[in-house]
Task: structure prediction
Amino acid sequence: MKICLLVEGSFAAPRPRQEDPLSALWKTLVPQALNLKVAIDELIPISKKNLLAMDDTLPRSGRAIPLDELILQRIKLTNIDAAIVVWDLIPQWADSPACRWQETLDLYRLLGMRSVLPNEWRDAAGARHLDLLARDAPSQRVAPPTLQNGSVVAICIDPMFETILVQDESAVRRALEVAGKNVPGWPTWARNSRRPDRELLAPAVARSRRVSTAAVFRRLGSDFKVAKQEWATYLYRKLCEDQNARNVLVSHSVSARLQELLG
Result:
């Protein structure tokens, strides 16, 4: 079975002899860390605009290609059999309060009702939508979803991928090579931060650069926002190499979902 992963992020500008950080993260580091047995064959970076573009009741957001059209392109070009869609809960799709369950329902509803995907894919999405609607509560599932021909499986990260990276403050300090050092302006750590990218990792990277001699600061720079994908990939790699942090990373709920599907 040929699997396509559509995940929030973007490909970085090509660098000589270096794998793109988004590809390195999702096609190499994550599968190795989780010991996944099913390979990710195709990787497509997406944004919320691709999800929103499927909803014809909303104004088209820029020139974003609707998500189902991206999937259709891969079906035609490389004959993918199934797709996994990963997005962050924060920021939410629209101006309404963030709701992982509603966004998941909307994803399957839109995939099934639009006349874009082949019938097999649309039927599978529609059946999944009805199955979710029939639950008394979101958590009341009979069994984990399975990847079958024509299926799309959704994984919504609450609140965002960077949450995985901030569960062990000491490990982040070791990754930035500032363990045991006084770092003026180091953020007050909160593992349950709703914006760990802005509130924790961005200031941690910027402040650490002032006291760390780590080569990564020369390679990536101190601005986490500008090189967000590069820093996320670097930190994930370093956490995988840190045994204590690795245990936390592997046991995260998102890791568990991926292991259910691809393990």
Q: What stands out?
A: Residues 119-133 form the longest helix (15 residues). The first strand starts at residue 3 and ends at 8.
